[in-house]
Amino acid sequence: MGDFTFSSDFWSWWVIVLTVGNILGCWWLIVWTMKKRAGEAASGDVTHHTWDETLQEYNNPLPRWWLWLFYITLVFAVIYLVLYPGLGKFRGVLGWTGEVRYEKEMAQAEAKYGPIFANYAEQEIPALAADEEAVRTGRRLFLNYCATCHGSDARGFPGFPNLTDDAWLFGGDPASIKTSILNGRGGQGLMMAWEGQLGEQGVDEVTEYVLQINGREVNTELARKGQQHYQQMCVSCHGIEGKGNQALGAPDLTDAAWLYGGSPGTIRESIAKGRNGRMPAHKDFLGEDKVHLLAAYVYSLSN
User: Which residue windows are transmembrane per the record (predicted)?
Assistant: First the structure.
């Protein structure tokens, strides 16, 4: 509860009253249930509660040590709520917060591992990619921060590039890979939706032409009409021959590497609806030294 923000004093006091009330209620319940009552049989004696004619209940209260466990638990709860946040807006006398704990742990990690990454950062990416220890460390970074999108084997998923081949949207050289991780990719490389300008028929025609330059069997008449649309609307990004443009992040349409899938239906959807995948920037999160090593690992996957 240390990071929870209460929007009003009412809810803060609501939590305080409920929490303190429950602790006091539990304390009273234990005392009340263990209180000896008038006429109660002595410990070990029959209580005169009888079931099924002869089945009787003995008075065997909980052992004292067991009872004290409940009291100790309640005392622990009180001490915890005094020291740490848990009572509404009261933050505890220690001033603990999740942010403070996180920053402290990060500072400790930086003091321990920072020099290691700084040493790696002084080496060129191709050299690191040939260093087995550096690659193992880079792989651990990849599994922690990149595998969710690109997969543990780095072969990607629909919408997330395969990093083990040579089909790079923004370039596969060390500098380009590092830039992609540091600054992310987004505004460039976005595929706009063309259905509004082309109409359904026009989208079908461009789809046929894209399939044609990809080396597949197509309806030549539709492809011929699609080529005209392509030259008007697509050539500025994908090039006359459909080879793409890494400066813009425009993919090569002639190879077998399809980011969102290469079926006719998926290609048609990409043309009609557009694509807006984004690669988040990791510079502020990881720091340049770690990104340098991570880039070396990614570079090693296809080199």
Answer: 12-30, 65-84
